[in-house]
């Protein structure tokens, strides 16, 4: 396992863009009291229930997956993923503090959240990182089996949304499902590990 050095400007801008777009997606979700899938969805749910910010939960939930990434992928991928997770955890609450919506229909918020997050995740994937959590596992599964990352993540979303029914009203969960479908469809239709991930990021 070798550490790639140093990060190029090309990859740095890609990671920055991915962090910004994923954070904007979280901002839309929080503004409309919606949720998403995977570890980000779990972090959003916990932020509704407990007096801690989304970013704190997002980092804590991602910690075990960093180990999986280090063991199964590469040091470079893991460090870039840690950068992405910490970046999203910091930028999301900052955007939430500065962006205000007079009106934000939940249906529109769900679509915008899914689209922004999907584009952001693709940017992270293409530049040798992920947003942590199940995204790491999903990438490994696609490399080993060919089962697409977006569709893999959609299967896990069902569990998160079942739990969300205990916290959010039914219409909020339904809108959240729409956002998650948009996110995963964008990834499923526009990203393939074999075409985008460099060989040194694997193993």
UniProtKB/TrEMBL annotation:
Do the record's keywords include Transmembrane?
A: yes
Q: Which organism is it from?
A: Mesobaculum littorinae
Q: Which InterPro entries match?
A: UPF0750_membrane (IPR051461), YitT (IPR003740)
The molecule here is called YitT family protein
* GO cellular component terms, A-Z: plasma membrane
Arranged from A to Z, the UniProt key words for this protein are:
Cell membrane, Membrane, Transmembrane, Transmembrane helix
Leader sequence residues: none
Indicate where this protein resides in the cell. Cell membrane
Give the transmembrane ranges: 12-33, 45-70, 82-101, 107-125, 146-167, 173-191
Topology relative to the membrane, per the entry? Multi-pass membrane protein
The yes or no answer to whether the keyword Cell membrane is present is yes
Query: What's the superkingdom here?
Result: Bacteria
């Amino acid at each position: 396992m070798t550490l790639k050095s140093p990060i190029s400007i090309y990859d740095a801008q890609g990671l920055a863009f991915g962090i910004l777009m994923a954070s904007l997606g979280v901002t839309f979700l929080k503004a409309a009291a919606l949720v998403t899938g995977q570890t980000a969805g779990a972090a959003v749910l916990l932020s509704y229930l407990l007096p801690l910010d989304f970013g704190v939960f997002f980092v804590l939930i991602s910690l075990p997956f960093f180990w999986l990434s280090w063991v199964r992928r590469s040091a470079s991928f893991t460090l870039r993923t840690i950068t992405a997770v910490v970046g999203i955890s910091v930028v999301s609450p900052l955007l939430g503090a500065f962006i205000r919506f007079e009106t934000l229909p939940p249906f529109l918020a769900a679509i915008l959240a899914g689209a922004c997050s999907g584009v952001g995740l693709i940017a992270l994937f293409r530049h040798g990182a992920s947003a942590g959590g199940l995204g790491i596992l999903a990438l490994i599964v696609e490399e080993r089996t060919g089962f697409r990352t977006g569709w893999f993540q959609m299967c896990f979303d069902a569990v998160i949304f079942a739990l969300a029914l205990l916290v959010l009203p039914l219409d909020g969960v339904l809108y959240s499902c729409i956002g998650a479908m948009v996110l995963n469809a964008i990834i499923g239709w526009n990203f393939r590990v074999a075409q985008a991930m460099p060989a040194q990021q694997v193993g």
